[in-house]
Structure formats: structure tokens, C-alpha cells
Task: inverse folding
């Protein structure tokens, strides 16, 4: 029981960091969805479920390896890089795919814009987005990982993470406030543009991780630096 | 067509006596503002201060005489936009022989604070009580542009001007407007109105990312005006890439596109601070309204002449401008039917638009003289010292 | 009612002019004093955090700061500890000091750099980890806010990234 309370307290205390980390992905995604509160809530649940999946994947590794921080820095960098590329691809695709009139438009002259090629695209996309954001190791997660690795059983580690997750999830409920904003027709448009901009940033993060992993040659980088220094100090 | 006897659009210039009478309070107050500068030793300082005072008062007198706003305000605004980098870069080169900000200056809290950072600092400040900027909270001898001073200035501007900051305060907008004024005709006329929403997307993106990274994302990656102010020193591939982005954005959004479209493209389609100020657009007591009865069939001159695309068919039907309206006065000056008018909230539409315009200009021009005037005087002083 | 709203509107307009006129004379000082009383401070990524302990050297002091942790997974700045040697003018030409970063009495790393008297000389620092807490640094200049050596006023400032 004490472990449950500890996990919940740790999760709730870490919530602001989690929502700040996941916000760039979640909030524009929810803002672009032309549906009511119930659908928004369902998509949020799917996102959080995917995020839990990402956490639990690392929890299993943490317990199996008996490590406080799962996997070494080198491999973590690779995982982050791939996750960031995945986020960039999914956000960019969602933002840029041609919109089409929704079949269930409530009234004549009122246009609802749908993100993604079909309605069936959205649930797996929400889960995937959640999973990819969950793969990032935010500091509260590392703290929870230290605690979880100290348990003597895999079910114990998983249970700790689940309750930690429930604690953080409380901070995601205010994101449902995006739903009533969609009555302004500009909001879905702004949300899609935001996703496009964020896709570029996540792609950059992926490149940085790849460079850290020594996949990008540094000679080209040094040449660029030299030229730019000559220009700025001319 | 409006009654020639009562129309503002068709009214003859105001008499010189009345124009001078309306200008005197402004002249006296701005002289009071410039007095501390006039007392400084050295005649370049005095000459620059006097020249700036005379410049601001001359423009105000012309606003009173001609009953037009946009043309004279634009002269001030473009002057501010082009002279600000002169003084700023001059001070940088004098201090450290380079426009780049060395790491040491950031570590010692000597980076001047820019108002563009304000939206990005709010969430981190609320969560952790820290300001994500390498500056100083209070002014220091080596950094008078402290966070407190610039936030105080922004608050004052927001109360007095609201979104009109983008027409009377923002020196970056002056550059944009300057390049938009060069060509006689626009080479690109059709602009998809959805791009007006891009500044909001940029604002949301940088606010969310700044909260996630605890870094001022716009300053690090997206500010076109780093090209004419200061930028982090190039010391790695990343900073070199960032510098390239600043140059590319400046050339595209501030020079080329305004030239081709004759619109303030950086302000209208990119600037996140403009979107942030739009939130306060409705808090100002002054606005511009469109009288639909007088507008009639609609010549859309206002829509075609708005530098920031803040008027469209929907807004004309609603009788007002969009929240992106910077109160520059272009639509009012170009309207031949007295349909687009200055207005004070709570008053009857179109009853005394000239009175609304006068009250608005008194507030706006006082701020412009205090802020923009001081920048112009500082830069002029440098130029005078260079020549003599 | 229309008369009342008109009076309020004109009143607000006049008040705006009053604010524009009085603001430059009074507002900045008032706001600055109020800002000084708030708990707001500059982000420790720029300031280096708060000092934790002072280590006495041979004619100089070494100030070790509290660790500045990475804020979130998207942050580009790793966790680091700032170490400051002062005064820079009193430092010997070559520095190679073992430094205890976590206050457990055992040195966590050895920091080495050439402390040139020339203020414009480029500084390079090498850090050899003695514990798993610290990442190594090899002839690093000003790589990032979490990994650098810089001369700030009369001090030499080093930031050592943590694992």
C-alpha cells in the first residue's frame, strides 16, 4: 500500500514535467481533431495508453537488467533518435495530408476537416504518438525507474510504473479544454500548422541524436563553422 | 457618397492655426521627455535630440493638418526600423568588435532582453519561477536592457496601444514596412488568407517547445532579426546552422516578400509576438470600425491596402477589423466613403471619428516619441558623430 | 445607457493618454522595485545554479555549485555542475585540481586547464572522471551551456556535464 501511495505521489509531483514534455505533441494533435469532447477524451485515453506502453517497455528492461537507468547512453541516444524521427514523420503526415470534408458534417455550409486519410487512421496514430513520447526518458521517469528497479519482482516493477503513470495522467485532463476551442474555425488550421512546425523540430532532434551516435560525419560540420566564422567576423 | 460638407475623406486640410494648436501639447510634452538628453554634454547629442524632436512634431503637425494618419506614421515607423540597427550594431561593435554574443556575456547575464521572448518565458516562470533568458532581472551598468525594464515597457505599451505596438513601437516592423514600401506595385497580389494564421501556429509551437526544453526556442532558431541585431557566436555546427536560418528568414520574410507583395509579410505571416499582442487587441479602448451602411457594395480598397491583411469580407460584414489589426490607419485614410473610421468603444459609430482619432494619436504618439524617439535620437547621434 | 457607455469610453480614452504621459515618468521605477521583490530568478542553465561549497586552493578559491539538472527530455542541455576558480589573476599558469562535486569527501574528477593571464587567450579544459558521476571532457572550449570553460570577469568558469 505504501508503494502505491509512493508511486501515485511521485507521479502526481512529476506531472507538470510530463505534460510539458508531451504537450508539444498532444495539444496540437487534439486541437486538429474536428470532434466533440467524447472523441477528444477517447483520443487522449489512447495517447496515454500508448505512453504507458512506452514506459512499461522500459520498465521491463529496467527490471530485467536490474539497472537504475535502463540501457547505456549510446543505445538510449539511438532510441531517442528513432523516436524523434517517428514523431516527426507522424506529425508531418498528419499536418500535411490533404484535408477532406467529413462525411458527418452537422449542417450545410459547415465544413469539418479531418486529419489523416481516414477515421480509422486516428486511433492507431494516437497510440503511436503516445508510445513514441513515452520512449523519451524524462527525469521523473528515471526517478521512477530507480525505484522500480529496487522491487523484487517484475509485476512489482510494472505495478509501480502503472500507479506512477496514473499520478502523472491527472495533469493531462486539462488538455480536454482544447475541445471547446474548436468551435473557432481557425483552431484546427492553426493546430495543423503547429504540427508541421513541430515535425521539423522533432526531425532536427532526430538528426542531433544521430550525430551524437556518430552517424553524421563531422568534417562537413567543421567546414560550415569555419566559413560562417569568416563571414561573421569579416 | 458621403456629404462633402461633413465628410472626413473629402474634407479640406485643417487650418494651420488649429493644427498648431492641436500640436502644441504634444510638442511641449515631448520636449519635456527629451530635456534630460538635451542637458547631456556634447553637441552631437543635443543636435540629435533636437532633430528627433522636430521630426516627431513635424509629423504630428502633418497628421493634424491633413487629417491622415498612415502616411506620416509610416515615415516615423520606417525611420525607426532602419535607424534602430544602426545604433544597436554601433554599440555592439564599439563594445566587442562583433555582432555576435560571446558565451561569457550570456553567462554573466549581460544579454539585452527583447520583448519577443516574453511569451516563451511565461510557462517556465509559472512552473519554476525562473526566466529562461541569459539576462538580468534588474538593470546593471553593463546591461540597462534588463528583463524588468523591458517587461515594464511591454506592459505600458499594451495598456496604451494594445496591438498598435506593431505600428508605433516595434522597430522590427519598421524594417518590414520599409521594404514593403519600395515597389510601386505588388508583383504578388494573391495571398492565401490562411497564412494569416501562421503566426499563431509559430506562437503555439514556440511556447510549447520552450516549456518542454526550458530554452527560448524562437531566439535560438527562428528570429529573422538576429541578422541585424546580435546573435550567439558561431562556435559549432549547430550555431552555424542557426545563423544561416536567421539570414535566410530575414532575406525572405523581411526583404524579398515585402518587396514583392507590398505587405508586411514578416509581421502578418510569421511574427509570433504579433499573434501574442493580438490577444490584447480587444483590450484597447480604441479600434477601427467599418460602417456597413456607408460601405455599401464594397470597393474593398481597405482590404487591398491593409499591410497585414487584417480586413476580409467577413470582417467587413461584421463591421470591424480582425484581431491582427495594428491600427496603422491605412484603411481609414484610403476609404472614400467614411465607412472605415476610428472609434472609441462605447461611443456611437461614426459620430465623431476625428475626435477618436485625435485621442488615439495623442496616446500613441506620446509613446512613440518616448520609445521610438529615443532610439532614433541615439542612432542619429552616432551618425552625426561619424560625419563630423 | 448609450450616454453612460459613451462617457465611460471617453473616460477610458483620456485615461489611456494619462497613462501614456505618466508612464515614462513613474512606471519603470515602480515596476523594477516590484520585480526585485518577486522570487523570480534567471534560469540556472545560464547562472550555473547556487554555490554549494568553497574549496581553498593555493592562493585562490574553487567554488563548486549545486548540480543543475536537465529539465526535460527535449532539452539540449545535459545536467552539469559549475566550478569557478577565482580570482583568475591569481591562478598559476597550469591548473590540475581534483574536485569533489557531490560533497562526499572524495574527488569526482580532475579538472585541468591552462590559466593564461591574457584575457583574450582561448581556454581549453580537460576533465578526467574519477567516479561514474561525471562525463569526460577533452580539450573542450565553449561547446554548450553544460560543457564549457570561459573567463567571466576575474574568474575562470568550468561546467562539467554529468551522466
Result:
Amino acid at each position: 500500500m505504501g508503494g502505491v501511495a509512493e508511486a501515485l505521489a511521485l507521479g502526481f509531483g512529476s506531472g507538470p514535467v510530463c505534460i510539458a514534455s508531451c504537450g508539444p505533441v498532444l495539444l496540437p494533435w487534439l486541437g486538429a481533431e474536428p470532434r466533440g469532447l467524447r472523441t477528444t477524451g477517447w483520443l487522449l485515453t489512447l495517447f496515454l495508453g500508448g505512453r504507458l506502453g512506452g514506459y512499461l517497455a522500459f520498465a521491463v528492461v529496467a527490471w530485467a537488467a536490474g539497472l537504475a537507468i535502463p540501457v547505456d547512453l549510446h543505445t538510449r541516444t539511438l532510441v531517442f533518435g528513432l523516436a524523434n524521427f517517428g514523431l516527426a514523420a507522424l506529425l508531418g503526415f498528419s499536418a500535411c495530408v490533404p484535408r477532406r470534408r467529413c462525411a458527418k458534417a452537422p449542417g450545410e455550409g459547415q465544413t469539418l476537416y479531418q486529419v489523416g486519410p481516414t477515421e480509422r487512421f486516428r486511433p492507431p496514430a494516437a497510440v503511436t504518438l503516445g508510445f513514441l513520447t513515452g520512449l523519451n526518458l524524462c527525469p521523473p521517469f528515471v526517478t521512477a525507474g530507480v525505484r522500480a528497479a529496487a522491487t523484487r519482482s517484475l509485476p512489482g516493477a510494472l505495478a509501480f510504473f502503472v500507479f506512477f503513470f496514473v499520478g502523472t495522467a491527472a495533469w493531462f485532463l486539462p488538455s480536454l479544454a482544447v475541445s471547446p476551442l474548436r468551435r473557432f474555425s481557425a483552431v484546427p488550421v492553426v493546430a495543423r500548422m503547429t504540427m508541421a512546425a513541430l515535425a521539423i523540430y522533432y526531425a532536427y532532434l532526430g538528426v542531433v541524436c544521430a550525430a551524437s551516435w556518430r552517424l553524421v560525419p563531422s568534417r562537413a560540420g567543421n567546414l560550415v563553422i569555419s566559413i560562417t566564422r569568416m563571414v561573421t567576423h569579416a | 457618397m458621403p456629404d462633402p460638407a461633413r465628410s472626413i475623406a473629402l474634407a479640406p486640410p485643417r487650418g494651420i492655426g488649429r493644427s498648431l494648436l492641436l500640436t502644441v501639447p504634444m510638442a511641449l510634452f515631448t520636449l519635456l521627455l527629451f530635456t534630460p538628453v538635451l542637458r547631456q554634454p556634447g553637441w552631437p547629442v543635443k543636435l540629435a535630440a533636437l532633430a528627433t524632436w522636430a521630426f516627431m512634431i513635424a509629423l504630428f503637425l502633418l497628421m493634424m493638418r491633413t487629417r491622415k494618419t498612415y502616411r506620416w506614421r509610416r515615415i516615423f515607423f520606417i525611420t525607426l526600423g532602419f535607424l534602430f540597427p544602426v545604433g544597436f550594431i554601433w554599440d555592439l561593435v564599439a563594445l566587442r568588435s562583433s555582432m555576435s554574443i560571446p558565451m561569457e556575456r550570456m553567462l554573466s547575464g549581460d544579454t539585452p532582453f527583447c520583448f519577443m521572448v516574453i511569451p516563451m518565458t511565461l510557462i517556465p516562470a509559472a512552473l519554476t519561477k525562473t526566466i529562461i533568458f541569459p539576462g538580468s532581472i534588474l538593470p546593471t551598468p553593463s546591461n540597462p536592457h534588463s528583463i524588468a525594464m523591458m517587461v515594464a515597457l511591454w506592459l505600458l505599451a499594451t495598456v496604451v496601444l494594445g496591438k498598435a505596438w506593431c505600428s508605433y513601437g516595434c522597430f522590427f516592423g519598421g524594417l518590414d514596412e520599409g521594404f514593403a514600401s519600395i515597389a510601386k506595385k505588388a508583383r504578388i497580389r494573391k495571398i492565401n488568407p490562411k497564412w494569416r494564421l501562421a503566426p499563431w501556429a509559430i506562437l503555439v509551437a514556440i511556447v510549447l517547445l520552450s516549456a518542454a526544453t526550458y530554452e527560448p526556442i524562437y531566439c535560438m532558431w527562428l528570429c529573422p532579426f538576429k541578422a541585424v541585431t546580435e546573435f550567439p557566436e558561431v562556435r559549432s555546427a549547430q550555431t552555424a546552422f542557426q545563423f544561416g536560418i536567421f539570414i535566410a528568414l530575414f532575406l525572405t520574410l523581411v526583404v524579398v516578400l515585402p518587396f514583392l507583395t507590398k505587405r508586411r509579410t514578416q509581421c502578418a505571416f510569421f511574427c509570433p509576438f504579433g499573434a501574442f499582442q493580438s490577444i490584447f487587441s480587444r483590450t484597447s479602448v480604441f479600434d477601427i470600425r467599418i460602417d456597413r451602411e456607408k460601405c455599401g457594395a464594397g470597393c474593398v480598397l481597405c482590404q487591398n491596402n491593409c499591410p497585414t491583411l487584417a480586413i476580409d469580407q467577413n470582417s467587413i460584414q461584421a463591421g470591424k477589423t480582425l484581431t491582427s489589426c495594428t491600427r496603422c490607419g491605412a484603411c481609414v485614410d484610403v476609404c472614400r466613403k467614411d465607412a472605415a473610421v476610428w472609434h472609441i468603444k462605447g461611443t456611437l459609430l461614426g459620430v465623431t471619428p476625428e475626435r477618436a482619432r485625435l485621442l488615439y494619436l495623442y496616446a500613441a504618439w506620446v509613446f512613440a516619441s518616448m520609445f521610438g524617439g529615443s532610439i532614433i535620437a541615439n542612432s542619429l547621434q552616432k551618425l552625426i558623430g561619424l560625419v563630423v | 445607457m448609450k450616454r453612460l457607455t459613451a462617457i465611460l469610453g471617453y473616460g477610458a480614452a483620456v485615461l489611456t493618454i494619462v497613462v501614456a504621459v505618466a508612464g515614462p515618468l513613474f512606471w519603470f521605477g515602480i515596476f523594477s522595485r516590484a520585480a526585485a521583490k518577486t522570487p523570480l530568478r534567471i534560469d540556472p542553465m545560464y547562472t550555473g545554479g547556487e554555490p554549494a561549497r568553497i574549496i581553498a586552493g593555493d592562493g585562490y578559491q574553487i567554488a563548486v555549485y549545486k548540480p543543475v539538472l536537465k529539465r526535460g527530455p527535449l532539452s539540449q542541455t545535459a545536467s552539469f555542475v559549475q566550478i569557478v576558480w577565482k580570482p583568475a589573476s591569481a591562478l598559476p599558469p597550469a591548473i590540475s585540481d581534483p574536485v569533489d562535486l557531490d560533497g562526499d569527501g572524495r574527488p569526482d574528477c580532475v579538472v585541468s586547464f591552462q590559466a593564461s593571464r591574457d584575457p583574450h587567450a582561448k581556454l581549453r579544459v580537460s576533465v578526467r572522471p574519477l567516479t561514474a558521476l561525471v562525463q569526460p571532457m577533452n580539450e573542450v572550449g565553449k561547446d554548450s551551456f553544460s560543457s564549457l570553460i570561459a573567463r567571466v570577469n576575474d574568474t575562470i568558469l568550468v561546467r562539467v556535464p554529468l551522466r
